[in-house]
Structures are given as C-alpha cells and as structure tokens.
Amino acid sequence: MRKTPLKVDPQKCRITFPLAVSLLLAAGNTSANSAQDTIPPIRVDVNVVSVPVTINNARGEFVGGLRRENFRLRVDGEEQPIEYFAAEEEPAQVLLLVETGPAVYLLRDEHTSAAAILLSGLAPDDRVALASYEQAPRLLADFSANKQAAAAALNTLVFSLGTAQLSFYDSLATCVDWLSNFPGKRAIVALTTGIDGSGPDRLQALAEKLQRSNVMVLTVALGRELRGPAQPRNAKTREQQKGRQSAKDLAAGFAQFDGALTTIADETGGHAFFPKSDAEFEGAYRQIAALLRHEYDLGFSARVRDGAYHTIEVEVMNSRGEPLSKDQQKPAYRWNSRRGFRAMSP
Predict the structure, then answer these.
(1) Model's pTM, two decimal places?
(2) How many domains does the chain have?
C-alpha cells in the first residue's frame, strides 16, 4: 500500500506528487534565494497495465476467494511483480453499448428484454451506463449504481430504418476513451452485429488502442437470423441458386465480423458470445454478470517505452505455491486473461 498519496492521470499514465510536496521543497530553498523559480513537481512516466483475470473450476463455476499470492504474472516470459491487486468484490464501471442501426431493427426485441438480466445480476456497487451507436456513440444514461435507470433507458432506444453507415470500431474506440478516466475495474459490454463499413484499418487502430487501454470488452453478437439463413441444399432453379449464393456470401461476411468480435474480446481478456436462441441470450447475460462480479484485476508498471507489443502470461497457483496447469487433459481449473499490451512510444 502506498504511504504517500498520489494523483494519477490515467489517460497519460503520468503520476504527479501532490502540490504540498512541491511547496515544501520550494520553502526549503526560500531562505537561500527568494527569487528562485518554484521547484516543479516530481514526475515519473509509468505505463500502468491492468490484467483482468477470470477463473472457473471443472464444473464451470467461478472461483472466488483468491489472493495476490495465488497469481504469477510474466511479461515476455519474465516474471513481473504484481504491484496492484483488486479482488473480485471490487466494484466495476460497466458501459452497455447497443447497436441501433437498421441491421437490428427487426431484431430489437431479442436482446433488450434479456439485457435486464445482465443489469440485475451485477453487484450492488457496480456503476452502469448505457450508450447506443450507429456512426458514433451516444450516451443515454450516465454511470450510476441505480440499475433501474439503465433498464429504463433501454426502453428508450430508437432503431433506425433504411440504410445507415455503421461504425462499430470507431464507436467502441470512443467508448474506451470515455472509460479511461475511471479508476478500478472497467468493462464495455457491446451488443452488436459486428458490421462495420469503415475498413480493416479502423479495426487495426482499435486493436492498438485496446492494447494500450485497461478496459475489458465483452461482445454479444446480434442478428442470429442474418448469420445462418436456411437455404435448400439442392438448388434447381436460377432463383434458388442465386439465393443460395447470396446466403453463402452473407455467411462469409458475418464470419469475418465474428472473427473481429473474438479478436476484440481476446485483446482485453474479455469474452465473445454468439447466442442462437432466446435461452442462449439469457445465458450469455447471466454469464457476463457473473464474469464482472468474479473478475480479478492484476496490475504492473511497464517502464519500457518502445511502442512495441509485449505478451502477458498469467499462472494461477494453489495454496502451496504450485501451478494449476491448464495443459492437463481434464484441467481442474481454467482461466482467461489479457494476452498482451502495447507499450508507450519513446
């Protein structure tokens, strides 16, 4: 635990000692030279990296009660001291981001009702906000521990008709910036088809932002009817053949978007969900609520400034300090964590 309070600018990852320290230092030099310039505050550039971890036992139940001593952290293969540890009961800031474009107009009822399950399953101290997006995110309900306010805002969502340019990657990047100033656990739950018309360069830009951020992203794929439309296997007429080819093209397009949703979640230690039924939607939201309640947050200071990507590996230990290997055929425990981070540039 730090004995001297610090002021942290999370966006720049720059730590500044309180003004009182600077005044004290300056006062010590006043007798020597009253015209001396005020001594500036001491600054240390630190890239603070957060590593969210969730762990399940063989029955799929979340494992609670773990402490800092139960975790080992390696960066590029070398063990790194865990300087910050937030246990599972620490409150989280959760942003619910919902796509409201025309692609989900006919699907709008399949997830908004079940999303209430997510809100009701969060911890009492968790603070929730709601935003919608098409080309850009729009905040509908600010962060509050009042889950009923977010649930009421879900009923005000307006879904577009016709055609619209969907910018999922840039919208998510903006939401990551919104959360950058909050302390502790931060998560975005994105309810989206994954459709984005901005090109692969925007996905790459988002991935690099996520590698530099401390926000966990969980994605829930919408549009189950669009992803797998039923088509006859033996198409005889020209119309049937065209319909079958269109279905193949649509499925290929969604496969690409699904890969992006998985990549986005993996970059942050989150999870991607692809529900195919109402029951699976409810199950996904229940699991997300449990994930957020039972998330451990490890933190370390990365002093390297090379702008490069560095791998992260988390190992969970038992009470005797022995690793619980995930390589066993039937492992007793499984855990998920952030896979790497991008260091600050020189």
Answers:
(1) 0.74
(2) 3
